[in-house]
Amino acid sequence: MMAEMTLADADLEKFTPERPMTICDPACGSGILLLAAASVLPREFIDQGRVAFFGVDINPTCVKMARLNMMMYGLYHPLSFLKKTQELTQEEMGMFPEPYKQQIQQTLLLEQRGEREASL
After folding, report:
1. Residue 90 pLDDT
2. What is the domain extent for residue 35?
């Protein structure tokens, strides 16, 4: 339902393989929200490379599940990525919209604090 509400009025004509629509899930889990978004979009839109999917999660098992799901459904774009939050580069962080970028940075700080406390 979230995917349908968000993407129902999207102007798909303005997106190209060079400037694709970006769909971001900053806590992707197994990638279900990304799959739901893909199910709302026309398949030819995806196959033409006019959408890029981004997902991160702090749990490496979840990232592996999301990658498998994305591969099974053929949801790939050269700009897309699914990775552990801790492995994001500054360039990749810059690709996220502002509210997500801040949340990701907070998550990384909390995790670093937790690692430091655990080592004490």
Report:
1. 82
2. 2-119
